[in-house]
UniProtKB/TrEMBL annotation:
<dbReference type="InterPro" id="IPR015421">
    <property type="entry name" value="PyrdxlP-dep_Trfase_major"/>
</dbReference>
<dbReference type="GO" id="GO:0003962">
    <property type="term" value="F:cystathionine gamma-synthase activity"/>
</dbReference>
<dbReference type="InterPro" id="IPR000277">
    <property type="entry name" value="Cys/Met-Metab_PyrdxlP-dep_enz"/>
</dbReference>
<dbReference type="GO" id="GO:0019346">
    <property type="term" value="P:transsulfuration"/>
</dbReference>
<dbReference type="GO" id="GO:0019343">
    <property type="term" value="P:cysteine biosynthetic process via cystathionine"/>
</dbReference>
<dbReference type="InterPro" id="IPR054542">
    <property type="entry name" value="Cys_met_metab_PP"/>
</dbReference>
<comment type="similarity">
    <text>Belongs to the trans-sulfuration enzymes family.</text>
</comment>
<keyword id="KW-0663">Pyridoxal phosphate</keyword>
<dbReference type="Pfam" id="PF01053">
    <property type="entry name" value="Cys_Met_Meta_PP"/>
</dbReference>
<dbReference type="GO" id="GO:0005737">
    <property type="term" value="C:cytoplasm"/>
</dbReference>
<dbReference type="InterPro" id="IPR015424">
    <property type="entry name" value="PyrdxlP-dep_Trfase"/>
</dbReference>
<dbReference type="GO" id="GO:0004123">
    <property type="term" value="F:cystathionine gamma-lyase activity"/>
</dbReference>
<protein>
    <submittedName>
        <fullName>Cystathionine gamma-synthase</fullName>
        <ecNumber>2.5.1.48</ecNumber>
    </submittedName>
</protein>
<dbReference type="GO" id="GO:0009086">
    <property type="term" value="P:methionine biosynthetic process"/>
</dbReference>
<feature type="modified residue" description="N6-(pyridoxal phosphate)lysine">
    <location>
        <position position="195"/>
    </location>
</feature>
<dbReference type="InterPro" id="IPR015422">
    <property type="entry name" value="PyrdxlP-dep_Trfase_small"/>
</dbReference>
<keyword id="KW-0808">Transferase</keyword>
């Protein structure tokens, strides 16, 4: 099945009992057993729920994995995956991963004895150099957030395999429609499904996909033991959003490319970060089908930034991304505020850096809205 068909018919396609073309919402906590220990595959909804399971099968199909798992947020998915590691293990972490990922590793998992080194993953040599005897995994994002730096998943996977490390890729920015890390050698793919997968800014959810039975058993154990599951209603809402992923992504990509080209010509913009504009993009065409709906740009000064923000009528100033509506944010003050200021400046997340999640509106309306001098 090709992707556009898989996204509609993948996972569990409707309901066999009634013919319903959508999966029912099984709003139940528990299941009747025919005799002690004799049940129909479901015992308790933390352990398994048919609506959640349909979603988990769908994301696994879309990423080409062995099994999928749904959690109450992207951070719950990330944290549950990090619980695969133990006291004394070391992880190599991309240096501009999502702020919350950095925070949970730096502030929570480090207290539990999990060590990490931040590395610029755009050059795989940096990763090789950071490997220690206790290194167990590489955690990366590409494009990175918010600077849209590209990293070579296949090359990093080669390093991971040579050193028997797990490669974990947060694929939130691309979605499986544009990039499938497992085909390039990743072991675990993570999503904040709150973003492009849901696509409508109406649910907070996280998904993880693993590529082996062993990892599936371990992660299901953690999902059930720790309990950070996604409820059946949210599972259903998320699945509904996912069914239109390719339609939305095509428009996001088309709009973002046009806007990034327009921004590059503005005198009040110092720099535009969009993978589709990057000179290195030729090297990455085999790993990403298109360049996504996220872009960042650096405004010349704080005054212009203030004008830009106060003039907005269509674009919403808000955290988050990936919805049908355009959202704008200032990472240094919002999503990335938990990263120390020296570190932020060192990696380029300045106070005048703006991140735009380009929506699916008419592109000219978005462009008109972005003019600080109108
Ligand atoms: C939003 C986001 C997360 C966290 O997901 P939540 O659903 O907000 O918990 C993780 N990674 C990336 C790249 C994100 O954008």
């Amino acid at each position: 099945m090709e992707f556009n068909t898989l996204v509609i018919h993948g996972g569990i396609d409707g309901d066999k009992n009634t013919g319903s073309v959508t999966v029912p919402i099984y709003q139940t906590s528990t299941y009747r057993q025919d005799a002690v220990g004799k049940h129909k595959g479901y015992e308790y909804s933390r352990t398994g729920n048919p609506t959640r399971e349909a979603l988990e099968k769908l994301i696994s199909d879309l990423e080409g994995g062995y099994a999928g798992f749904a959690f109450g947020s992207g951070m719950a998915a990330t944290s549950s995956v990090l619980m695969l590691f133990k006291n004394g293990d070391h992880i190599i972490l991309g240096d501009d991963v999502y702020g919350g990922t950095y925070r949970v590793i730096d502030k929570v998992f480090s207290q539990l004895g999990i060590q990490y080194t931040s590395v610029d993953t755009t050059n795989p040599i940096n990763i090789e150099k950071a490997i220690q005897s206790n290194t167990k995994a590489i955690f990366m994002e590409t494009p990175s957030n918010p600077l849209m730096k590209l990293s070579d998943i296949a090359a990093i996977s080669d390093i991971a395999k040579a050193h028997k490390l797990l490669l974990i890729v947060d694929n939130t920015f691309m979605s499986p429609y544009l990039q499938r890390p497992m085909e390039l050698g990743a072991d675990i793919v993570l999503h904040s499904a709150t973003k492009y997968l849901s696509g409508h800014s109406d649910v907070v959810a996280g998904l993880a996909v693993v590529n082996s039975k062993e990892l599936a058993n371990s992660l299901h154990f953690i999902q059930n033991a720790v309990g950070a599951i996604l409820g059946p209603q949210d599972s259903w809402v998320l699945m509904k959003g996912m069914r239109t992923l390719p339609l939305r992504m095509d428009r996001h990509c088309e709009n973002a490319l046009k806007i990034s080209k327009w921004l590059s010509k503005q005198t009040w913009v110092n720099k535009v970060y969009y993978p589709g504009l990057s000179s290195e993009v030729e090297n990455y065409k085999s790993q990403m089908k298109n360049f996504g709906g996220m872009l960042s740009f650096e405004v010349s000064d704080e005054n212009t930034l203030a004008k830009l923000m106060s003039n907005l009528k269509i674009i919403t100033l808000a955290e988050s991304l990936g919805g049908i509506e355009s959202l704008i944010s200032v990472p240094a003050k919002m999503t990335h505020a938990s990263i120390p200021v020296e570190k932020r400046n060192a990696i380029g997340i300045t106070d005048t850096l703006v991140r735009l999640s380009v929506g699916v509106e008419d592109v000219q309306d978005i462009i008109n809205d972005l003019n600080p001098f109108k």
